[in-house]
């Protein structure tokens, strides 16, 4: 799985950063910052962060096969 974020949608609620702080952070304006694109062992928490984001700014997608 691969994580992406849409900073244009982000409203700075911080749910993602509280749910998975090793994956997400917030910049000085409160907008989501993605620290890594592969959730690894944090997959379940990243999936939950994606679900609880009030504006759908956190997305998970299948990794493209090479």
What does this structure look like?
It is built from two helices and four strands. Strands 1-4 form a two-stranded antiparallel ribbon. Strands 2-3 form a two-stranded antiparallel ribbon. It is globular, with a radius of gyration of 11 Å. The longest helix has 10 residues, at 43-52. Helix content is 23%, strand content 21%. With 66 residues, the chain is an alpha+beta fold. The mean pLDDT is 93. Strand 2 (24-26) and strand 3 form a beta hairpin. The two termini are 14 Å apart. The chain has helices spanning 15-19, 43-52; strands spanning 2-5, 24-26, 32-34, 58-61.
Task: Fill in the keyword field for this structure.
two-stranded antiparallel ribbon, alpha+beta, single chain
Sheet of most strands = 2 strands, antiparallel
Find the count of extended strands (DSSP E, 2+ residues): 4
Instruction: List unreliable stretches of 5+ residues.
Output: none
Compute the average pLDDT. 93
Residue share in β-strands: 15-25%
If you compute it from the alpha carbons, what radius of gyration comes out, rounded to the nearest whole angstrom? 11 Å
Order of helices and strands: EHEEHE
Please estimate the helix content.
Answer: 10-25%
Structural class: alpha+beta
- The number of distinct helices, counting runs of at least 4 residues, comes to 2
- C-alpha end-to-end distance: 14 Å
Strand order, biggest sheet? 1-4
Globally, the shape reads globular
